[in-house]
Design goal:
Length: 338
């Protein structure tokens, strides 16, 4: 899959919005297949230790959930090696299963066989055949995973997990937890497309336009919350000169082509924001609006499409356009005009 690292770095900008800049300590590293930045707002030197522990939480988690590291739990699960799974892996799988059910499979962490198929087809410079797609689809589907107590099983040996759509948000949650345990009261964790902030401070996050211009569409103010972006412009499969989004529809195995180019979700946890930004991208605005009204889990979202931007009212309350007057359409207005 092609990646444009430079653009990724600019996907979100995190800026403290205090009138007076506050002192902070930070750490930068590469994890979860992207750049990570952690800031803690304190001048206390003991925070350096907290940052190092936080970094090790991300690295440790990556070693457990990576699809490619042979020592990971995900690798063992995918390749049928019988083993005891770590608590982190089981907890992430349980959460992923809940979010798959909540989104009626628009987010589906069992899409691994489909992802492998598209990745190998890209390397061969061709599209998957219908037969290949139906085999991969038969090896996918969250209902094929069972968790009871601490035992995790799959119905179909060909089922492959991939936590690419939730791992960064989940890692940010775990790091925030670790930083708090180390005594840090305010901070920010950014995996570029997934940002979690905690503590008594507003953060202003820049939202890029879903193109290669690098221009900002606007800003979101974030406090004690998480934000995640899913876009079709920075990661994609390129086959025969055509770019296909890296987000797949688990129902038919095809890359999503519904006119949406970017989705931003605000939620109370990083894992939820991450999984839901992927899910809303798959669902499209109407289905996402139905999910939004279902009060079971609360979230806010913005969709940037070919025809303009649409945002839930709770998103608009925290949004400021970069060009005055260029406000996204509210979801209620969008629905009533259709
Ligand atoms: P994100 O950038 O968070 O939207 O996640 C996209 C990544 O998640 C892709 O690169 C795939 O690894 C994986 N993925 C693609 N489509 C789906 C889907 N519908 N549900 C879950 N994971 C997906
Ligand atoms: Mg995601």
């Amino acid at each position: 899959m092609k990646k444009m690292a430079l653009l990724l770095i600019l996907l979100t900008l995190s800026l403290g919005s205090c009138a007076k800049p506050s002192p902070y300590r930070d750490i930068h590293f590469f994890a979860m297949d992207t750049f990570a930045e952690v800031r803690v707002y304190t001048s206390d030197t003991s925070a350096n230790e907290a940052l190092i522990v936080g970094k090790s939480v991300a690295e440790d988690l990556e070693n457990k959930i990576s699809t490619t590291k042979e020592e990971s739990d995900t690798y063992a699960f995918n390749h049928g090696a019988a083993q005891e799974y770590s608590e982190d892996f089981t907890e992430l799988l349980r959460l992923s299963l809940e979010l798959s059910k909540f989104t009626d499979g628009a987010f589906d962490m069992t899409s691994g066989a489909l992802i492998e198929l598209w990745t190998s087809c890209e390397a061969e410079g061709r599209l998957p055949t219908d037969d290949e797609l139906s085999v991969a689809l038969s090896n996918a589907g969250y209902t094929g995973v069972q968790i009871s107590d601490d035992t995790v099983t799959k119905q179909n040996p060909g089922l492959l997990l991939d936590f690419g759509a939730i791992g960064k948000g989940y890692a940010a949650d775990r790091m925030a937890e670790s930083l708090r345990e180390s005594g840090v009261s305010c901070g920010m964790i950014s995996f570029v497309s997934s940002v979690t902030v905690f503590g008594d401070k507003d953060f202003k996050i820049g939202i890029r336009k879903p193109d290669t211009s690098g221009e900002l569409f606007g800003y979101v103010s974030l406090r004690d919350r998480s934000l995640s972006v899913s876009g079709d412009y920075e990661r994609f499969y390129e086959i025969g000169g055509v770019r296909y989004p890296h987000i797949l529809d688990p129902k038919n195995g095809m890359p999503i082509a519904n006119g949406i180019h970017s989705v931003v979700v605000l939620a109370d946890s990083g894992a939820m924001a991450d999984a839901l930004s992927t899910a809303v991208f798959v669902m499209g605005i109407e289905k996402a609006a139905t999910l939004y009204r279902n009060a079971e889990l609360s979230f806010e979202f913005l969709c940037m499409t070919d025809d303009g931007a649409v945002a839930s009212d709770g998103f608009l309350a925290y949004f400021e356009p970069s060009v005055k007057g260029e406000q996204p359409l509210s979801l209620s207005q969008y629905i009533s005009e259709r």
